[in-house]
Amino acid sequence: MNKNIGTKSVDKHVLLVEDEPLLIDLYQERFSEEDFKLEVARDGNEALKKANQDTDLILLDILLPGINGFEVLRRLKKNLDTRDVPVIVLTNLGSEQSDTDKQLAFSLGAVDYLVKAYHDPDEMVEIIKKRLQ
Amino acid sequence: MSSEDRRFVRLPTLPSWEKLLSRLYILPEVAFDQKALRLELLGLISNDSITLDQLYTRLCVFLPKITNCEGVIIWSTGQSGTKIISTNLSSKEALRCVETRAIIKIARPDHYYFNKNSPITLQINRKPINHCHVLSLGELDSRQYYLLSFSGRAISGEISRVFEVVRQVLNLRLKNSQLKQNYQQQGATITNLTGQLGEGMVMTDSELRITLWNQSMQKLTGIRTSQAINHQFEQVFHRVGQLDWLRTLVEDTKSQVPMHQFADFEILTQDGDRRWVSSLVTIYKNRSGSFEQAVLVTRDISHKKSLEQKKNEFISIATHELRTPLTAIKGYLSLLERKSDNLTEKQKSYLSQATKASNRLGGLAEDLLRVTQIDQDRIQFKPQNIHLFSLLKKVVRDFKPKAITKGLTLSLTGSNLRDKVRLDQVRTEQIFANLIDNAIKYSNQGTIKVWLEINEDNQGLNPQLIVNIRDTGIGIDSRNIEEIFEKFHRSHRPEQSREQGAGLGLYIAKSFVEKQNGTITVKSRAGKGTHFTVTFLVEQTKRRRKNE
């Protein structure tokens, strides 16, 4: 499913990799008010297909159907088109302090590790905007 | 009787033998160096590494040399008949001799017979024997032991002294053998009894040598009883891989009597399995305070441990799974709040209640997760130089609104100490957040004072940073003060039962303090308030460098 949210002139592309419909709806709802284009991938393979050199930021879940988020991250970093796209791991796994999952994410090239439950949609918008600047 | 003899039989110490032997008179007509003979006999009978059987054989050769007796027979009698133990004659001849009526008549237990002028006449090797001794040596295994010596010539009083010494020696040796046997029998009884126990049981002697290793212990560790008995405790336990604990045990044996110690530890069995065991060690000491025996009772708790692990895994997974719907609930509530202009006051209050409830649920899920991480030792601390006063300032600022809502004053005082201390920023914030949150929760009026101080020893060394959090709340009953740091502990006071929380805050705080080598203490009086003190050691080198 590939939606172009909003009618504003958008120049930034954000790819949300998420399989939970409740959260996809939530983020789409809130992000639609913002000045960037949101694309959604519902599993790892879709994420690898949709990510390209025009993507400005990827929000990547870890527990995904098929290939998991760590593997997606590894492949994104191997691909010349996508290796420079910043990836924020956005998961409900582990903790934002010190955690093995967080360490793994950083070692694979993630720029941040966020626990979804800790950040409401408004905060997510702030974080995304900061990254897009 | 074998070399095992040595372990159990302790003959009296040498001086007493010397005394005994000083009474030994060597016959003048025997042309041997008396001193050498004395020494040889001394060596023979005082050497407890020589078994009783060996001693008998040697005596049969030795006695004719230092006395004028011609033949020596050592034999035993019992239900299964007469048995020659040792002799310098042929066994056939010896047996015939001791089975003559005259000898049977005088061979009685606990009795020794010297027939200087006795009417007994014997023929040995077709030679008439007029003079003989029969010494009763004692009893072993329901058999009586005797020594017969004979001579064609008159047996002098001096010879009888020699035999008296020999008799005493052999009697003592025999008694020792008896004691040893009793000991082994008792040991066997204990082994049988303890073998039936489900618990593993180990006993050691005063030198930490294993004297008992029961069947359950064999099952638990895979080490056979025969591989453990008589071996050093440490050597055997080295094979099941737990030395730190053992070292503590040995060190602790120096303290009071008797001493108990509990410990859970993981062992590696001979089959390569890992098992968790729980042990109770009891140390026994004698009156003078020296270590006498250790008794170890060990139970296999692998099943319990695996259940505990499953429980932790379950909580961990459940918490992660809870996070997703919670994220959605909190997210949609926040969307609703953005558009709350169109809501009525009542709807707004519903919204705020729902938000509060979802925050509480979220906090609970995170606490549970943290506790399982603590229990599984999965939390990594990243110490960095932090400025404790600034950290406290931040936490106090975060909690000010909550305190004000309850009508409480929350203040941070004390000098702005610039000392830095190596701690994990996030975990340390959590410690003080939990303590301050707790103070607010259990206070209905008054003030919560937080202050930082520094403490040094007399030489101005080993500085410690001490954080105090004192409230004027309901306090803690002295009966419950020990329990407050336990998991899921809640105030017992009915008026406080409506307070929210799962009783994890103080448990988490204490774990985080101790994981960072700090200490936490509490003083409290019911109705007066509670005073928590958290102490961290400032790293000496850092401080000195700063002062230079």
Helix content of chain B: 40-55%
Count of strand segments of chain A:
5
Largest interface: A-B, 20 and 26 residues
Which term fits the overall shape of chain B?
elongated
Give a quick account of the main beta sheet of chain B: strands, pairing sense, barrel closure.
5 strands, antiparallel
Share of β-strand residues of chain A: 15-25%
Write structural notes for this entry.
The complex is a heterodimer of chains A (133) and B (548). Chain A is of the alpha/beta class and 133 residues long. Helix content of chain A is 36%, strand content 17%. In chain A, strands 2-1-3-4-5 form a five-stranded parallel sheet, with helices on both faces. Chain A starts with 12 loop residues before the first strand and ends with a helix. Chain B is of the alpha+beta class. Chain B is 45% helix and 24% strand. Chain B has 17 helices and 19 strands. Chain B has a five-stranded antiparallel sheet with strand order 2-1-7-6-3, with helices on both faces. A five-stranded antiparallel sheet of chain B has the order 9-8-12-11-10, sandwiched between helices. In chain B, helix 2 crosses helix 3 and helix 3 packs antiparallel against helix 4. Chain B is elongated. In chain B, 26% of the residues are buried. The N terminus and C terminus of chain B are likely disordered. At the A-B interface, helix 1 of A face helix 12 and helix 13 of B.
Provide key terms for this protein.
heterodimer; A: 17% strand; globular; disordered N terminus; B: 548 residues; five-stranded antiparallel sheet
Provide a short characterization of the protein structure.
Chain A has five helices and five strands; from the N terminus they run βαβαβαβαβα. With 133 residues, chain A is an alpha/beta fold. Chain B is of the alpha+beta class.
